[in-house]
TrEMBL record:
Involved in mitochondrial fission. Acts as an adapter protein required to form mitochondrial fission complexes. Formation of these complexes is required to promote constriction and fission of the mitochondrial compartment at a late step in mitochondrial division. This is Mitochondrial division protein 1. The keyword Repeat applies. Keywords: Repeat, WD repeat. WD repeats lie at residues 71-93, 94-126, 134-173, 174-215, 216-256, 257-287. Belongs to the WD repeat MDV1/CAF4 family. It comes from the Eukaryota. One of its GO terms (cellular component) is transferase complex. CDD domains: WD40. SUPFAM superfamilies: WD40 repeat-like (SSF50978). The keyword Repeat applies. It comes from Paraphoma chrysanthemicola.
Amino acid sequence: MALLTSFYVHHPMSIRHLRLTEKHLLAGTASGAIHIVDRRCRHTENFSGCEHRTTIEAGETWHFDCYQNTLITANNDHVLRVWNVDTGLLQRTLARHSSAVNQVLIANAATVISSSQDSTVIVWDLPTAVPRWTLSHGAVVECLMIHGDLLFTGARDGTITIWDLEKGGFVRVLQGHTTPVWRMTVHLDGRLLATGASGGSMRIWDATSNHCIAECQGHTKMITDFTSVSETQLMTSAADGTIRVWDWTTGRHVSTLVAHERAVRGLSLTSQRVISGGMDGYVRVWDRADMTTSYEMREKVRAVWHLVSEADTIGLALLVEEGKHLIEMWDASQLK
Ligand SMILES: [Zn+2]
């Protein structure tokens, strides 16, 4: 397992968001400093001659997304800001929300979706910076996901709404959760949807009807990540320290692994391994075949804020000591 790049970020609060795209690894703080490193970088620690790192000061930021060389920040001042990652320059602003923007998702080069504390979701035409549709909810939307032409929104009132992105129309609402919905994932075929809400509640839905297939009992705290293991199995990590495996089609519980002493913050799958990061400071590598044997991928730190992956590359945001964070990128293709 090779460490590809690493650098320190000094900030009194947590790393709020970590994102790994085809070209970049991006780490954002609550104050809005977005630290960006080109994935070609092979410098570690704070090598002073590194030409691959930039920082964009975006203003107080809740969330961001990046697609190719476009970074969009969801700002507290009701505005989305569009940045060129290569030049670090602000290109345009998307201003139509009437409260803080809490989520942003870049669907493609022309379409951006945002949700706000004003309880609306806006589908933007990026080249013109004009809203294509404004979708009204009864509550603030906490998570956004797209699959094909469908947009899925999970809200603070426990509802999940499905929208048609082409026509901008309402498709259906899924009701059952009684707490805010924070996480979602869709099965490969697009028919099944898994959702996680506050308190560890989890459901699997038939996304083509309003039918809830299963209430998945087990997690006692919020689900932090979903990963499809196969066509038939879904893996979850949670703030209760466990990793669980479920049958995708029935919601039946398959197995539970006590993975970390504190919250599991992220999961990644390679062909033979599962990698998990915990607030206990460990990044652990598990054998997918039996999910029992494990080793620590790196030495313990204070906490693992985020673990993200893209293809065979892993991104980590780690708390080393109070106010000092380490951002790392690893090649996971050579795991022993
Ligand atoms: Zn570099």
